[in-house]
Amino acid sequence: MKRIAIRRLALTALTAATLSVVLTGCFPILAGGVAGGALVATDRRTSGAQLEDEGIELRAASRIRTNVGDRVHVNVASYNRQVLLTGEVPNEQDKQLVEQIVTRVENVTGVVNELAISGNSTLAQRSSDALVTGRVKANLLDARDLFSNAFKVVTERGTTYLMGRVTQREADRATALVRSTPGVQRVVRMFEIISEDELARMLPTPAKPQPATANKP
Fold first, then answer.
1. What DSSP state is assigned to residue 121?
2. pLDDT in tens, 151-168
3. pLDDT given for residue 214 in this prediction
């Protein structure tokens, strides 16, 4: 019962945070989290890469807004300097223009352009995607065999994108879990696969118990 309560609280917090972003702008910055310090400690990126990803998202969103305006709806998500673009643009020219803008942002090493050529999504559609993302994050958090902070989750028009530095075992387990999440229509994986040995080196070493000392009379 306690674990179910924790999962519900996590789902509520994640959904509220994501919906807040959806309702306050067209360029959500999909990174970090509520407990930023805790996430930095468990994130598999270096602290420098995390800061660069935040900077990439901010600069890319600002440049898109300056050069293209509100005729597009673009979400920018960066993980380990690899950028995912989702959302809608009115034509192929704008799709390529947005990609070129983001490619020129400092520290970007690659861009995956998943922009759809269509009208901008409605607030209801974006809210639905935010709810799906919240469910996915809660399910990852609830999985005992996964480190939820190793994954970055983006949902656009029912498609859920997974980013992160994970082992093949973690990638397959997370994919199966996400596919079974209500509201997920399709899963796209953008993982950087690491070995189990690499993962073991990332995990903190358990502290050795100190020998008990006898009390002197």
1. P
2. 999 999 999 999 999 999
3. 58
Q: Give, for 112, the enclosing helix (H) or strand (E).
A: strand 110-113
Exposed / middle / buried, residue 70 (Cβ in 10 Å: 0-12, 13-18, 19+): exposed
* Cβ within 8 Å of residue 99, ≥6 positions away: 85, 111, 113, 115
User: What torsion do the CA atoms of 116, 121, 127, 130 make, to the nearest 10 degrees?
Assistant: 10
Eight-state DSSP code of residue 29: B
Quote the DSSP letter at residue 210.
P
- What separation, in Å, do the N-terminal and C-terminal C-alpha atoms of the chain show? 47
Checking DSSP bridges between strand 186-193 and strand 151-156, what pairing results, if any? Answer: unpaired
What is the dihedral sign for C-alpha 17, 11, 203, 195? negative
pLDDT value of residue 197: 95
